[in-house]
Amino acid sequence: MGVYAESCLTELLVALSLAVVALYVWFSRCYQYWHQKGVPYLEPQFPFGNIYKSFVGQQSMPMDVTDAYRQFKGKRFGGMYFFNRPALVVVDPDLIRTILVKDFWSFQDRGIKVDESDPLTRHLFLLGGNKWRRLRVKLTPTFTSGKMKMMFQTMLDCGRELAAVLEEPASRGQVVEMREVGARYATDIIASVAFGIDVNCQRNPEAAFRQWGRKIFETSPLRTVQSVLNAINPSSVKLIRLLRGESDVSKYFRKMVSDTVAYREENNVSRNDFMHLLIQLKNKGCIDSDKPGGQREKDEEDAWKLSIDDVAAQAFVFFLAGFETSSTTMSFALHELAHHPDIQARLQEEIDAVLKQHDGQMTYDAINSMQYLDKVVAETLRKYPPVVILNRENNVEYKIPDSDVVLDKGTPIMIPVYGLQHDPDYFPEPERFDPERFSEEQKAQRHPYVYLPFGEGPRICIGMRFGLLQTKVALIYLLSRFTFEPSEKSVRHLTFEPRSFVLMPKGGIQLRIGNRKQL
């Protein structure tokens, strides 16, 4: 028996050794890709390529791209490897503009492979090609100024509740973890606007919707394996879904949307929210115009209507995008304002003055007239962009302008937003928080494609204005009532969660809150 077991173990070790050798040979051939193309590249390390730090949890994978950007400075582009898969890192702002705008139709897809049989992946962020274009046309009218004003009251209600929740800790001068506070505020807005439900998780942090929202951003060993397989072979997404089945998160959000739509249609309920606009796209194929009469002319695209799963997918991505943009930007801004009391005081002066001009009312026009608030939010997004890199993939063979390099179809393209926005050549002393970087004079002196917190070109974030408005409403409500200071738990220079694909502060943001001493 012992001899048999020893023999089996030997055979297993031989088989594993052969598999490792075969894998090494395969990866070694893959690692010749950029050398053969004549592209400068980072020397890969088997089997990680150039993402060892993120694989072992030292930093997030997008930060590996930031490191590559810094090593390629002085060049227009360079190559790196995600395990065995080659990717191009774009350094030159003019080439970035070419990819995002001028030659957009060669790079219209993000290159993030998804299993389209999963209903919640059929949303605007992930779709490519004609499916993306058709859906973009449908959804663009949902984010006009008129539609923003329609949803504005919901933001005000949630902002008022945000301030009310913080009144007690402010009166006691307590330390508050603002990342979680911002997350609950954003969740309340999106639950109401995108899903048509009132959850008030600002008062009830353990509300079911908030708990399910947390699950979306949770990391796990399975998700790590999924990321590895997707990096090595994007086609593996179908295998992954086959093995794990539909997730509980997917089931929850699909059922919520289905129940909400059914209730509204059966009871003829109409609300001024994003869900109402999605229901219009489901039933009519178009959205009523902001113009008097509320109708718009139809075109050939209007023949296509959203399915109930399409509606669920758009509501879901609304949550993903709006949640991170507003909650993290709000908390990052408060972190910087707490450490720069002069900037905080100047912003509070502007808020007080503008609100006084509008009889103390926070109107849509009042917010849009706060120029210093614009600068503070813009500088926050520069220093802490929610999305650290932009992904693209060429859908045709492409010759890089002014070079002899021809990219094979399907090459991943990485645009390092964080690297660009922390480059001292474009933003001197990049770790210094300075809203005046976004004065008209300084913006005019800077290349427009080195500041890309929402992307650029036809695939620029469609909900950008909504996310900015959501953030500004929160900051106005808070800064008109409270002051924020560093606490003994505060960290001056933040570090970020290594397993997160978005910029998330490690350990949260702990600030001391107090009532303003207004004259």
UniProtKB/TrEMBL annotation:
Its main location: endoplasmic reticulum. Belongs to the cytochrome P450 family. It comes from Locusta migratoria (Migratory locust). It comes from the Eukaryota. Pfam families: p450 (PF00067). Its cofactor is heme. It is a peripheral membrane protein. This is CYP450. Keywords: Endoplasmic reticulum, Heme, Iron, Membrane, Metal-binding, Microsome, Monooxygenase, Oxidoreductase, Transmembrane, Transmembrane helix.
